[in-house]
Design brief:
The chain is of the alpha+beta class. The protein has one domain. Helices cover 25% and strands 25% of the residues. It contains three helices and five strands, in the order ββββααβα. The strands form two sheets. The chain has a three-stranded antiparallel β-sheet. It has a two-stranded antiparallel sheet with strand order 2-3. A hairpin with a 5-residue loop joins β2 and β3.
């Protein structure tokens, strides 16, 4: 399964000199792509994206707890896209005028 999220506040991970995982802002909106094994159940797939240690928090909040939600979500598995869109309260398709890399 594949999920893409319109990320208005993207972060990238890096290791500091002590080997600790840190995050820094990335300029501009980005597309965050999450590839989930097909062996995952629907609940496991949702959790892989939205859990505290999930992909969305890792790529949108990093070291700071923030209330960042995606601008949109798309998935090649319609039930997953629907659940994520409902959870985040965002459209389940990339708007044609959305400006971001990816």
């Amino acid at each position: 399964m594949r999920v893409q999220l319109g990320n208005p506040a993207a972060k990238e991970a890096f290791r500091d000199g002590d080997g600790n995982l840190r995050h820094r802002d990335v300029d501009g909106p980005r597309v965050t792509t999450v590839v989930i094994p097909d062996s995952y159940t629907l609940l496991e797939a949702v959790s892989a994206v939205v859990a505290q240690d999930g992909a969305w928090n890792h790529h949108s909040q990093g070291n700071d707890v923030a209330a960042v939600t995606p601008d949109w979500v798309e998935s090649d598995y319609e039930p997953l896209g629907f659940l994520l869109g409902s959870h985040f309260g965002c459209p389940t398709a990339r708007p044609s005028d959305w400006d971001g890399e990816g």
